[in-house]
Amino acid sequence: SEICTPYPPPYPTSQNLTTCLDSLISSSTPLTPWTHLPHCIYADQSPHCVYTNAFHSISIITTPDEASTSLNLLSHSINPPFFAPKKIYPIKPYKVVSIPGKGKGAVATRRIQKGMAILVDTASILAQAEYPADVTREEVQDLMGAAVGRLRDGGEGVRALSRKGRSEEEDDELEDILLNNSFAVVLGGKNYMGLFVDVARFNHDCRPNAFIHFSETTFAMTIWAAKDIEEGEEITITYSAAGMLTEERQQTLEKVWGFKCKCSLCTASPSIQAKSDSNRKEIRHLQDQVGQLAQKGKYHEALKSAERMFELIETEGLTDQMGDMYEVPARLYYLVGNLEKALEYTLKVQNELQGYGVPGKFGMEKLRMLDGFIKKIERGLKRKRKAKEGRGKK
Ligand SMILES: C[S@@+](CC[C@H](N)C(=O)[O-])C[C@H]1O[C@@H](n2cnc3c(N)ncnc32)[C@H](O)[C@@H]1O
């Protein structure tokens, strides 16, 4: 059968392997990193196939071109040295429990510090988000069935996830589960739907205390604490674009995800919602202002606006990939000669980037560039110290 029985950890014995995988593969096809023959449908001459690596328990639905180029990373990328967030607790810091009005959700089982990784979850399914017009819904469902069935547990983990629960006859069970639990990710410049079995238990909040980050290098989604989270508190992420205002956010969640949001902000009083909307409008305004002021050479004013923006971003729980955000003030502080602050912010950028694990080619280049900038600031600081000492002696 094409469906693998679960492998005993860490890896199957060769006996198990050959009974489980398509026999052809091991003999002739150069198929690394895939463990099964691709399962394909043919749209106009451009096939879409399921590629599975059963060892890593991941199935990817994509075109042969994509599988052979951008996804070829898989053979070496999921090995532990490649994804090593430094700031992760040795024991899972949350449990999944029932949350009134939201189904299940994740609750902290200890105090979680801001900046710590809560969870690193490698994708089970990555499915291209768009198909050519002549691909039927049944064909996509067929691909999804193969993708899920070839996972190491035969798809049990995926099938246990929550459903939207619309009418039984209308919906394909797997399609429903995938739509209700997948997150949009970008891989090789293309849009994919990513299903991460553990991440799928985290509910949405319009003012979340954690945020997600997907790594193209490891195919893993990491959940980071954006604030200190107390034991017993629900850990939440955001499903909607960060900057939206209350009404727009609620409509989008209902349209795209199909649920009425019952998060802390959506159930708060109108005055709290109005304050949040006004904060978010100000963030948008400040974002533009920082750029404009910096362009005009008004660095001190740009920095004042940037600091105010960070404050509001933190209040609204919109922290996301802080590393990127800190780059502008790092440069501005350098330009105004505040090297201590420039170093502090540059180290924050570096720390965030390193924390995500090896962040692909682009990230590596950025790390090298940051390294150069840090050395430059440190040389400047040394000169400053020497000059001060010189003045002291006189
Ligand atoms: C990715 S799942 C999250 C985990 C899910 N609650 C469970 O039981 O497994 C997404 C679904 O959770 C529910 N959900 C998530 N956030 C919610 C919120 N803020 N308000 C109400 N329901 C929510 C919705 O039913 C949504 O379709």
UniProtKB/TrEMBL annotation:
Gene3D superfamilies attached to this UniProt entry: SET domain, Tetratricopeptide repeat domain
Keyword vocabulary terms for this entry: Signal
Domain of life of the organism encoding this protein: Eukaryota
Alphabetical list of Pfam families matching this protein: SET
Keyword Signal on entry: yes
InterPro entries per UniProt: SET_dom (IPR001214), SET_dom_sf (IPR046341), SET_domain_protein (IPR053185), TPR-like_helical_dom_sf (IPR011990)
Keyword Cell division: no
Domain SET residue range list: 92-240
Protein name: SET domain-containing protein
Taxonomy of the source species: Eukaryota, Fungi, Dikarya, Ascomycota, Pezizomycotina
